[in-house]
Design goal:
The complex is a heterodimer of chains A (306) and B (386). Chain A is an alpha/beta fold. Chain A has 12 helices and 8 strands. In chain B, the strands form 3 sheets. Chain B has a 7-stranded mixed sheet with strand order 3-2-4-5-7-6-13, with helices on both faces. In chain B, helix 6 (140-155) links the parallel strand 6 and strand 7 (163-168). The chains are: A alpha/beta (306), B alpha/beta (386). Chains A and B meet through strand 2, helix 4 and helix 6 of A and strand 3, helix 3, helix 4 and strand 9 of B.
Chain lengths: 306, 386
């Protein structure tokens, strides 16, 4: 799908929702929902996306939508998908319907990981899309296990003796891939064509599919609201956030930057890493660069490109 | 055609589920509910039902999947106990707040800590304010019939609330009794199919379920839940009358045993009601009787007041605590009598926590105390070491 085709698709998420200026998730949601012509049932974890799109009595969703709680978007969708199979089997339904869950990193990496894991293991025919803004943004920028090393958050701030988060993020795409599901992909909001290509592919595959999409948060990452795409692009070009797929266990690189930019280019674009540029934190920057390099090499090996 | 069959309470619940043949069952095993889920899994894997079963990884996901399935428009059921109910707590409230008629068998078991696998009612009594209909079963037969009744009651358009059907862990769930199983055809006809007002799978009429409601709407939604609970009273009676045509049994909010002539009454629920009946028969005293509560939510205040107001003394036997407050059944009975024309003396008893046995002798002692009008204004404990 090219941009023109994408623009011509019916909008399943209406405008008028209350997400922040510069937030990328409306683009992610629209791109994913436009990647199939079948009707889609959406399950959504508690979070920014849910609270900004379903303020009763209004809704932005022009497609069936359910929000249950924070940690159970996957299990909820597994119930709806099972109901679909049950009602179809009993001749009470004949339509072809697709099932998509949207969750943030808090609802997926952390509190919802068990619900996700169970759903993936049970083989439900669903697509889980994680929009990853690397912290609990809806409740005020608290640390999650998606928060990168060194980032300042409200529960792990850049302090006098501890310069923000001291742990590297969980590699959620590999966690999902370890369930031996047919399709896992890592994407980013700066490359919508790649994102739709992956979503289109995912919708065509039967069984559980998982996608994680980088979603820079203007408020939590502290950058101007017109820089979302640029910041995401730096994450990708520095290989901090590589784009790849795992199809039936086979790793495939989606994008290899011609020239890998230093990770500091990505880090310095955001307020959450500002403290790392003080001379005493130089070693933190080096540690991050070293980590990015090692992870990138590992990924290249997995993709057969090393 | 009905058939008598020896079975446990757990199998009775599973048999009801088999006849209901729900679209979706999502469940996770926990003692002493395990034989319900195991038996039903056999029915699924042997093709005796065509239910889609989701073997989830936790009770939290069991209820979450039930919410998804029920919202989708399916008839969804589950079963749990104790810690399982505690784990799914958050989603138990989502089910009722979303007005989804999920039916759940609760095989009553004590809550941790200390960990204990035996019967008391602290699990479901703790959930009494989560806007679920609650029916308590004295024996396997009632567990079977209540499960069937609960489905129709929960799905009634005026109600649309989830329902818990409780039976006593081990005592009922693992004890073998003769159960009359009614014809599956008649049960199916009685139940009909679920007709949801709105369904997630109706893609031509997209609905947003589980929205954000703040200061401006949340309160009304909660008030509607209470209205639905109030309506559930009459729907329960009407549904019971309909079921009675198949079973010949009565489905009142309460069951009165030797109550007309009685002046001294024990109020209790579930299997202990059976023990009380046996003691009443043995003591052969027209002055003693039993009031068994079958439906705890909504609570039958009027009926309880009407049946107890002219009695001399009433002992209320609770199998759960409300620490630092009146025990659940005692508190409700006391409330019920506030506006009554006269007031019997009331004595609260706590018994059987963590499966501590209650013997006929204990019940006899309660009746003896009542007959002497030996009442005090504090909880008494049956069979506990001081």
């Amino acid at each position: 799908m090219n941009y023109k085709q994408l623009a011509e698709k019916p909008q399943k998420l209406a405008s008028g929702h209350r997400s922040c200026a510069g937030c990328g998730f409306p683009q992610i949601v629209r791109a994913v929902l436009a990647s199939t012509d079948d009707p889609v049932v959406v399950s959504n974890a508690t979070g920014c996306l849910e609270v900004t799109t379903t303020i009763y009595p209004y809704t932005s969703w022009k497609t069936p939508f359910i929000h249950n709680a924070f940690e159970n978007a996957a299990a909820t969708l597994s119930g709806a998908e099972t109901a679909y199979r049950a009602l179809k089997k009993r001749g009470k339904l004949d339509k072809k319907i697709k099932f998509v869950a949207f969750g943030g990193d808090g609802g997926t990496y952390d509190i919802g990981l068990q619900s996700l894991s169970g759903t993936l293991e049970r083989g439900h025919d669903i697509l889980y899309v994680l929009y990853d803004n690397e912290a609990y943004m809806n409740t005020g920028i608290q640390r999650s296990s998606a928060t990168p090393y060194g980032a300042s958050t409200t529960t792990d701030p850049a302090g006098k003796v501890r310069p923000g988060k001291q742990e590297f993020r969980k590699d959620i795409a590999k966690v999902a891939a370890a369930h031996n599901i047919p399709y896992v992909a890592q994407a980013s909001v700066n490359n919508i064509i790649d994102l739709t290509k992956k979503a289109e592919k995912a919708f065509k595959i039967k069984g559980p599919k998982f996608m994680v999409v980088l979603q820079p948060c203007t408020l939590g990452w502290r950058f101007p609201s017109n820089k979302t795409i640029e910041v995401a692009e730096k994450a990708v070009k520095s290989c901090f956030w590589p784009l790849y797929e795992v199809e039936n266990g086979e790793y495939k690189l989606s994008y290899k930057p011609k020239e890998k930019i230093p990770v500091t280019e990505f880090l310095k674009s955001q307020g959450r890493f500002r403290h790392l540029f003080k001379p005493e934190n130089k070693h933190v920057l080096e540690k991050i660069q070293d980590h990015v390099d090692k992870e990138w090499e590992k990924l290249l090996k997995l993709c057969g490109k090393a | 055609m009905s058939k008598k069959k020896a079975m446990t309470g757990a199998e009775a619940a599973a048999t009801a589920m088999k006849q209901i043949n729900p679209d979706v069952v999502a469940a996770y095993p926990i003692t002493p509910q395990t034989p319900v889920v195991m038996k039903f899994s056999e029915f699924v894997n042997d093709g005796e039902v065509d239910t889609e079963m989701i073997r989830v990884e936790s009770e939290h996901s069991a209820m979450s999947a039930c919410v998804g399935a029920s919202a989708a428009g399916a008839r969804a059921m589950t079963a749990t106990a104790s810690a399982g109910l505690a784990l799914m707590w958050e989603v138990v409230g989502v089910a009722s707040g979303s007005r989804l008629p999920i039916v759940m068998n609760v095989v009553n078991r004590a809550l941790s800590a200390p960990i204990n696998i035996h019967c008391d009612h602290s699990d479901s009594m703790g959930a009494r304010d989560l806007s679920w209909i609650q029916l308590y079963s004295e024996d396997a037969q009632e567990a079977y019939e209540n499960t069937i009744l609960a489905v129709k009651l929960a799905e009634h358009p005026e109600v649309q609330l989830p329902a818990m059907v409780s039976q006593d862990g081990f005592i009922t769930s693992h004890g073998v009794q003769n159960v009359t199983v009614y014809s599956t055809d008649k049960i199916k006809k009685f139940l009909g199919e679920r007709k949801p007002i709105k369904a997630l799978l109706d893609v031509d009429d997209p609905v947003t379920m589980g929205p954000l409601q703040l200061q401006d709407y949340y309160f009304e939604t909660k008030k509607q839940q209470d209205n639905a609970m109030e309506k559930a009273r009459q729907v329960y009676i009407d549904t019971g009358k309909e079921l009675s045509k198949i079973t010949g049994n009565d489905y009142g909010f309460v069951e009165a045993y030797n109550l007309d002539s009685a002046e001294y009454v024990i109020v209790t629920i579930s299997s202990t009601a059976g023990t009380v009946k046996s003691v009443i028969d043995k003591m052969d005293n027209p002055k003693i009787g039993l009031l068994k509560i079958r439906m705890f939510r909504p609570f039958p205040y009027e009926e309880v007041a009407r049946l107890l107001e002219d009695k001399k003394a009433v002992a209320i036997l609770d199998r759960s605590e409300s620490f630092g407050a009146d025990a659940p059944i005692y508190g409700e009975v006391k409330n019920a009598l506030y506006n009554a024309k006269s007031h019997p003396k009331l004595q609260s008893y706590i018994f059987g926590l963590g499966g501590r046995d209650i013997y006929e002798k204990d019940i006899e002692n309660v009746f003896e105390s009542l007959l002497k009008e030996d009442i005090e204004d504090k909880k008494r404990y049956i069979g506990v070491r001081e």
